[in-house]
Write a structure and sequence with these properties.
The protein has 324 residues and is of the alpha/beta class. The chain has 9 helices and 12 strands. Strand 8 and strand 9 form a beta hairpin.
Length: 324
Amino acid sequence: MKTILVLPIILLVFVTSCNAQQSTELTEIKNFGANPGNLKMYVHYTPTKINAPKPLVIAMHGCTQSASNMAELTGWNKLADSNNFVVIYPQQKFINNPNLCFNWFNSNDINKGKGECESIYQMIQYACAQYNIDTTKIFVTGLSAGALMSVVMMATHPQLINNGAIFAGAAYKIAENPISAAGVMLGTSKMTAQELTNKVLNQNPTYTGKYPKVIIYQGLQDPVVNNKNAKIIVNQWAGVHNIDTTADKIETSFMNINDITRKQYHNSNGESIITLYEVNHLGHQLVIQPGNAYNEGGSTGIYGVNKLFHSTYQTAKEFGITNR
């Protein structure tokens, strides 16, 4: 059993919707590996006659959520069915964290080969063996605590993760215990850009390959994760990719939506490496667009807001795994 220090303020960090019954669209995989982080694994996979290797998306929930909550809120399953890819939903257990948060602030869970990080890696390895996965098309995404765990996977397994989408998250190892975690969410980190960069590079000191691209979504009125954290993520991953932190392309009123600004940060070849979506009049929520069209989905509620922009579809499009 893990020893978890629970502070009252952590109860407020990464609050998401309450647990629901597991969706029949998800299958639990009980024996996917040694599972040192003691997590649950759920998969959404619809067999087809298409024999080509399939992309894989790992979608991680926020605190108090479950795999089925994440699936319903985001609409990833619908996109997976229409575009022939597989989705893994890791799920936290109460015994690990009473708020069901992934332990993104626990050094025993966020270093390569350890704890929850290693459990998620084993889920990926299981999926690759079972579902004919294209290992060049593996992506991570998450909301809040799940966003931070997505950053963990990008930092610890850059050779495996192609791209990550961070919804209301923060930089890798910006906190390594619950006490510092609470302050970090206020955007108060004093780490330099080089210190942030080294946190990632030190996980794989001999690695010389490519690092994942990064997509960031941040509500400008988020009361839980201060929007300063988006810039801190940019600073960290710009350093990892050796690019500057001045946006090379800025699109206000993106897709004719006044509240959304899209910023892109390019490398020397003009390739977009970091994409930042700043959403005005948005708190600690996802932007979705419920509906049946190919670019619609997800569910509204306390943590899902309809701004006529389905961020899950846009993310899949940025990942390059849609048929349109």
